[in-house]
Structures are given as structure tokens and as C-alpha cells.
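BUG: 3D viewer hangs when loading the predicted structure for this chain

Environment: internal workstation, default settings.
Expected: structure renders.
Actual: progress bar stalls at 90%.

Input used:
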Amino acid sequence: MADWIGIGKRARRCYGFDEIALVPGKVTINPEEVNTTWEFGGRKFAVPILAAAMDGVVDVKFAIEMSRLGGIAVLNLDGVQTRYDNPDEVLDAIRKATPSEATNLIQKIYTSPVKENLIAKRVQEIKSKGGYAAVSCIPQNAGRFASLAEEAGVDCFVLQSTVTTTTHIATRYTPLDLYKFCRDRKIPVILGNCVTHDVTLELLETGCSAVLVGVGPGASCTTRGVLGIGVPQVTATIDCAAARDFYYQKSGKYIPIITDGGMRRGGDVCKAFACGADAVMIGSAFARAKESPGKGFHWGMATSHSNLPRGTRIEVGVTGALEQILFGPASVDDGSQNLIGALATSLGSLGAKTIKDMHFTEIIIAPSIQTEGKLFQAMQRVGMGK
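C-alpha cells produced before the viewer hung:
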């Protein structure tokens, strides 16, 4: 699989969403008769899409609305929602900052310590409105924050860092024991992020309920530029899905994988499922919802790093309501709205009844899929030419 790139060094070719296409099936199905649900933590969800734990995407109100629509929105416990009693004022300042000021301002804003009482308060605010409360934090804070969130009635805990492994070597602090962490929880735990078969397999052994796949593909993430690491999402998803399937054959336990980031529109979401994802996590598409706290602005989780920011603030604009982004009707031509409708139509065209059936779709390498016959769109910067 690998090619020589120099003396004594080989590298294998990896692929992203823009380089592949899905081949229609021998049988087609009425899109209204396919099943786009997924199961996680013993529950079935109508929307197999999670809203990423980013401060420009998810707050309490957004999480409640996402729950109402049948999905999961993850609240960032390391963010402004738990650092400030009135996060709206802080978010407004971030929105108004100039591009040259934004990163430095975000760094300063995130130096304010997390108020532990706000962890319980935010969880309870979501639960009081009947919402599904999912929260996220980095490994360094996980032990303390998870206990507080559980006491408040949280439904799911996401432990997330740029790269997560079961073996983390450190002498200046005690690394988090992922096996113990998952064992001690009474709620589903999602671990991430990873991009390789072997690491996925090890994470699955911890007793987690799902694994996040993706390093650096997010619209506001600069990890790949700053650190030079990452694997394109098509290859990463396929490799990690292979680990999930191997683990299932060995243990009889099917643990979902969630492709996290790199999806701009419905076609990318469909490709992620065809590559083996059980669900996907999205940030920028939801940052465009009128319910999002960023009001059309979006920034990476590591933008606030005090010494080495690995994200940036971008303007994505506001295009419609969350319900419109998920279920339509679409009022834009770029595939960023009616994501569930796109998934259902793709399933029908592929002859797949369920998301798991979609995993057997034929995939072809087709970089021309984005440009073939699209000259006028590219020239006029409409549709696929944006």
C-alpha cells in the first residue's frame, strides 16, 4: 500500500471526502422508507449527527433544541458556559473582535477559571427543559468534572483531546487512567480523538460507549498546519471502522465510531457513513444556525491555548434555523441544509435500508467528482463552486 517517498522512507496514500464518490446500488429504495436512526448508550436517536462541543455552536438553548429534534449537542465544560455566569456578554465580545484581535481575546477570555457550580447549573438547565445533556472536557479535568456532571444528572460524558491514547507518558502529572475512568462512570462515555486502527482498538477496550475519529479536519481547526499531524477523514474512518468490526467479532460488543469534523455539506456526511461511521459530529454547519451562540462565528476548541493556539475564529454566517439545517426545506444551494433529507435520499439511491447497510457501499477514487461538468458553478461561485 505504501510508496517510496525517499531513501528508506515509505508513505501510504490517504483520502479525504473530496477525493471519493459513492456508487449507486443495483436496487433503489424510496427515501421515505429508509431508516436514518442510530443507537447509542442503550437509546435510539432519530438524528445520527452530534453538534460539536464548541462555544460558538452549543449552549444550553441549542442543546435543548437539538434534543427536541432528535439529536445530541455536546456542551463544552472547558468553555465560556462554565467560566462565566453571563456567557452571552463574552460571546458578543468575541463576535465583535476584528480578525487580528480574535485569537488573543479568546486566549484572555479562557484564562478565567471554570466555576464548578456552573457545571451542575448548565446540566440542570438542559435537563429541566427535557433535553439530553451531553458534556465534554479535556482529560486533565475529566475526573473532577465528570463527578460533578454525574451528580447533576448528565446523560453522557465526552472526554476529548487533540489526540487520545490509552498510554500517555508524563512525569509532571499523573495521566488519566481511561480504563478506570470508563469503569467508574454510570453513564455512556465517548472517547476521542483518534485516526488509526490500533489506537481505536485500544480505546474500545476501555469500556467506552463510542469513539471519535478525526484529528485536525474541522473548519476552524489549525492543528494540521501548526503540528503537521492528521489523517484525511475517509481513510481515518475506514481504518477505525475496521477496528470496531474486529472488536465486535472478538468480543460481541458493537461500539459505534463517530466521524468528527471535515464535513461541509450533506454529501460529505453521506460519504462518512459509507466509510463506516455510525454517527458524525459537526461544528461549522451548526454554527450557521440562528440558535447557535456564536451567531455566525465559529472557533476551534484549541484556539484558546495560551501558548500554542491550534484553532482560529472564522465567520460562517447565519443561514437558517437548526431545524432547517437538519430537515429542510433547504433555502441554499450548497448542500449545507436538510442534512437528514440528503442522507435519506443517498441511502435510497445506494439501495441501503439503514446506516449499517450503507457501510457496504462501493466507493471509488474520483477527485473529478467535485469539478466534472461544474464549470459554470465554479465561474459564478454558486452551488458546488462556492
